[in-house]
Structures are given as C-alpha cells and as structure tokens.
User: Fold this.
Amino acid sequence: MPLDQLLIDVLACPVDKGPLLWFADENLLYNPRLRKGYAVRDDIPVLLVEESTDVPDAEHERLMTKAAAGGVPQTGSAGRHADGDTGAPGTDT
Assistant:
C-alpha cells in the first residue's frame, strides 16, 4: 500500500524541516539538500536521524535525474506557502 496522500502532505525532514522527495518504487524519502535518505518500512516512514543514510554523489545524481523526469512527489505541501517557501531557513524553493 502506498503512503497516504495526507501523510505525504505533512511529512518533513526531521533535521531541516524541509520537504522530502518520495520515491515510492524504492520506499525512500529523500532530502536532496542534506543528501539524507529515510527508509519506508511496511508503509511507515522511518524518520529517525540515526537511521537515515548518507547518500553518495552518484546516488544523489541518479535520484535527482529520476525526480526531474517526473512522477516523484514532494512532501510537506500542507506546510508550504503558495510561493513554495516552507518558512524554514534555507529551504526556499
């Protein structure tokens, strides 16, 4: 079962409070700003900093290319202003 849309709308990175990219086919929530990956296990996001993974350059590039191709939703839309700003420092989009 995929993540519920309401959950996608409210999720944010536990470190910088900014949006995450949701790679449903990889069960991965990804913060490209910090290059941190968060697993989704049994449809439950594991947003514990100590369980996050550091994403190396090549993997970051692969994920960003995949996101740019489309179909990768961004989390946290419930917390973003109309201009895309989350209000969190350094997260303007």
